[in-house]
């Protein structure tokens, strides 16, 4: 089976047919693409030839302390007619989290067929930053860490959320960590955005807002924008051959991001952008998300497991 790798094009990724590949390279100035006999070769070609401002390492190390904010572009691993798919997206439990209410089309990793036929293109009415952050206290100590996450849209915004991790997962089964809190915060924000796109919001104007995600966790952003495609192709093993940590969150967040990116592409907005901001650096949005995350952690004190 052939694999067409598009390192630079309309939608970088790996395609299984020339027809789907050529739509993303023909007429695109500076397109870089090549045919391979294996998906691994195709992935290596993309990694070696794509253009980007930030190049992360494929590992699961702790977050970087680099202070200069930089765009974290989504990885190009979008395979048409994929053979390995994440399960249907399930929204986060019950607390302050609306569920994705549309039926997923597995062929497009979460993009409904009706949506794929949408041709309407509109400029965004405004750009909107969403800040996400996680908090976890007591890591490395005996007992369950007190953890929560925060999502900050702006002062007085009803969508702002402070969520204890025990509200979205069983802390007795899955031990809370800061990385899980960061990932769940990102999933929460992405689900909100996807629901607005799909029309679950009462305000139709929200569908014309182009969002940007700001986080102080490079790990969380890289998991869904850079590494997830490789992990799927590698049977959810990381570069060291070990099982990928936090797979349960990552594999259900990835198709939500793909859904958003498909909508943004149809609107000529490019892809959803992720920006890194240094934590505790005085950035107002990050400080507010951190405050909400700690409020969420405080709420975890009230969870049954801690009573």
UniProtKB/TrEMBL annotation:
Biological processes per GO annotation: DNA replication, removal of RNA primer
Enzyme superclass (EC): hydrolase
Residues in RNase H type-1 domain copies: 124-298
Assigned keywords, A-Z: Endonuclease, Hydrolase, Magnesium, Metal-binding, Nuclease
Gene3D superfamilies hit by this protein: Ribonuclease H-like superfamily/Ribonuclease H, Ribonuclease H1, N-terminal domain
Domain of life: Eukaryota
Catalytic activity of the protein: Endonucleolytic cleavage to 5'-phosphomonoester
GO molecular function: magnesium ion binding; nucleic acid binding; RNA-DNA hybrid ribonuclease activity
Chain segments carrying region Disordered: 48-68
UniProt EC number: 3.1.26.4
Pfam families: Cauli_VI, RNase_H
InterPro entries: Ribosomal_bL9/RNase_H1_N, RNase_H, RNase_H1_euk, RNase_H1_N, RNase_H1_N_sf, RNaseH-like_sf, RNaseH_domain, RNaseH_sf
CDD domains according to UniProt: RNase_HI_eukaryote_like
Entry cofactors: Mg(2+)
Family under the similarity heading: Belongs to the RNase H family.
General function of this protein: Endonuclease that specifically degrades the RNA of RNA-DNA hybrids.
Name of the protein in its database record: Ribonuclease H
Gene: Piso0_000041
